[in-house]
């Protein structure tokens, strides 16, 4: 029997708050708390994969300092808009 959607979201939220660098905790933690449940299944799958990436790379992608891999572009746009809204 596989992981339920609620268990998966709980795991992803925990992983979002417990990153390797504090900057990513502060970006992904609040995002996961408020936005994760609104993502569709495909976006959640991409988010899950993205959490396996190196935090320093993720930070560069989210801030737009370095071009992100194409598979993450849509989701990173959503995260960046959430994290850096004024």
Structure, described:
The chain is an all-alpha fold and 86 residues long. The protein has one domain (5-83): Flavinator of succinate dehydrogenase (DNA polymerase, domain 1), CATH 1.10.150. Helix content is 66%, strand content 0%. The protein has helices at residues 5-17, 22-35, 41-50, 55-63, 73-83. The model has no long low-confidence stretch (mean pLDDT 94).
What are the secondary-structure elements, in order, as H or E?
A: HHHHH
Q: In CATH's first tier, which class applies?
A: Mainly Alpha
Could you tell me the strand content as a percent range?
under 5%
The radius of gyration is 12 Å
Give the terminus-to-terminus CA distance: 43 Å
Q: What is the count of DSSP helices, taking H or I runs of 4+ residues?
A: 5
Query: Residue share in helices?
Result: 55-70%
Tell me how many strands there are. 0
Mean pLDDT: 94
Major beta sheet summary: none
The helix-and-strand class reads mainly alpha
| CATH topology-level name | DNA polymerase, domain 1
**CATH A-level architecture:** Orthogonal Bundle
CATH superfamily: Flavinator of succinate dehydrogenase
What general outline do the C-alpha atoms trace? globular
Regions with little confidence, pLDDT below 50 for 5+ residues: none
| Domains (count) | 1
Keywords: Chaperone
Family: Belongs to the SdhE FAD assembly factor family.
Organism: Profundibacter amoris
InterPro entries: SDH, SDH_sf
